[in-house]
Amino acid sequence: HPDHPGDRTSYLASSRTMGRGGENALLKNNSPGDRINNSIKVNENNNAVDGEKAKETAMGPLARKLRARFPDWYALADEFTLYHQNSFNVFLHMVTTPAGIWAALALITKAAHTLDAKTLNSPNSVPFVLIMLYNAILKQKLPKDLWVMNSMVMFALGTAAAVAQAEYSFLALGVTLAVSYFGQDVAHWLTGEKTYDSTYMTADARAANGSASSSFASKFMEHTVYLMPLVLHSAYHCPEPILLSWMVPRNYVVFAKLTSTDEKSHLKRIRDWALAQNPRLDATTHWWFERPNGAQVGVENQGYEVSPEVKESFEEIMKGDTVMGMFTKRFDMTSYEIAQVRGMNELYVAGPPLTNNSDKVFESSHVDGPYRIFPFCYLFRCMLATTGNSQIRTNFNFVTTYPENTTKYTLADGDVVGFDFNREIHYIDNDPDPKRVNKDPRVNLKLHYVVYPKCMRPFGKLLAFLTTRYNVNARNLFLNTIRPKTWRHKFNAKYVVLWTTEAVYRIEQFASWSNVAYVALASLLPRLLLGASSSYPCFVALTSFVHYIMYISVYYLRDDVSYGSFKRDVMFFKVIAYCHLVSQFASAVMANVATTGHPVLSYAMMAVGYGLASSAAMALGVDRTYFGSELGHYPPKWITAFPYSLKIPHPMIVGGIIGLSGFQIYAPFRLAIPWLIPAHIAFYMLHMLQEHFDIIAPKSRGIGKTAASASVTGEKKVA
After folding, report:
1. Structure pTM?
2. Which residues of 314-337 are buried (b: 16+ CB within 10 A; e: fewer)?
3. What average pLDDT does the segment 212-217 reach?
């Protein structure tokens, strides 16, 4: 790439905010109320001279040198990148742009084949001649690394076009070209990003963008000629690397504290009103913000709405800077929308838990909601404390902090913590310090928001509706089990609520409903599309390599990882992968043992390889095996025990490769799915090279400790 990796972070800071001529294009939030409707504006009124100075200061020396050598290219790239910040948008461009170029080259090649042979003796050479001319034109206009990458892509597309042109009609290729061209506009529409060509379509647009002297034709030609290198450039400089960022289990627990005078005033109004209702203290008492349809009223004197004055304070807090800021910091608001889920909001006063009623649910690890299979869509519950609290802690099992392996929040006096209602495992408990005892009841708010990509608005709205209905039904059941009187209510309290909660939690803890759904779809869809007899290799391919991709992604992007979720997910998919290997190997052995005998060499290689890998894992421990130190959760620790004492580089990966080779050398297994073991080894090697050369995102440097950083000081292994 044109920029040195060390300069990437500083370049991002400038390229995301600077347009041609140094004009700032800073994403700026609107008023709190507007942010709920996701109005994000671009401010282009900053001083150009100040912008150039800021950009110059932020860059590294190599980036400044390259910009001085290729000023026109970087001016264009800055403009283009400004409108390609969303990783999904860039990903779609990485599909549509090569597809469109391939279709155009295939059309040219096919047209060349229709000419008389005497006129054109080598029709397949036509696209390559054009590509060589194109590359020659760009040779002095692009940084060397980018030019090489672009040339490789273009020659690959030319080769694919020459090979495939005979298989497709002119109509099919023309449709592919049109779909690819308009697909880029669709990508911008789906992700809510403004298109780059909209900045030069009209004279007014060009004037506003500082290109008044350029014509539409010249800008369009420039855009077309440089499109592939611009897309490659944007892919590298995307704030969140495409594909890799989607494979990282993120931490979606957010925290803030309300401190402003107005916010404290609203909290006091709510607290005073709740305590003035004389709530019972032998159980929790709940009021709805807006009572949804179907919610019971009067059971245990609950289910009523708050007063209009309290509702007004609710509103101000929900749209306030502090609460909304938790989400705008966590999510890219050029891509995501936030909406209130008013039918789930409530105010409650907490009394001490009673034995054998459903209050015990909250003291056990649990997940609040059932709707986990909504990718990229999140429904947040925010717990906001209005009173003091030194005793009750809210714990999140998978958000790991060293050394307790869980994150604990003692919410008090304006503290607010938000988490995914349908995915986050949590529980409450008492602080073990006997001096930390609450003397007064706790008055808390539950605020709810749905966050979803703009291109998935219908799914986000559906998630909000379904979760609201579930919450109403669960609340009705809960109210009847606070103080169970009838045998049916007692049965529901002890078995339906508690046991169901425990079962749902255990599946989420060890497998994750989302992972189970993915495996089910990976099995079902190939059967529907390919038939049962041909679907298994596809199922194997879709489920055998997920854990490798997660290793690579998390090692590269280390910030804000949900460590517990990461360990669970990679273990789950690793088990799935080895189930495929073992089942296929066992089937091959049983089918051939009578004629060829047992594959003793395979058994020996598996024993040696996996014995070596297991020994390395035992020496490191589970948490350090799964990047506990690299992610910063555990302090560095020098490992000198076997097998690290043998000075074998990366013994865990080496052992895994030896074991996999044991599968591969057995011919009946190899012939069944010949690509399976080579693909496993390729992923292993890729990750080993990543570890050895310490290939991580620039913004992640300084998080944890890496093997490569230790090797230069002579230590044997840092974990």
Report:
1. 0.75
2. bbebbbbebbbebbbebbbbbbbb
3. 78
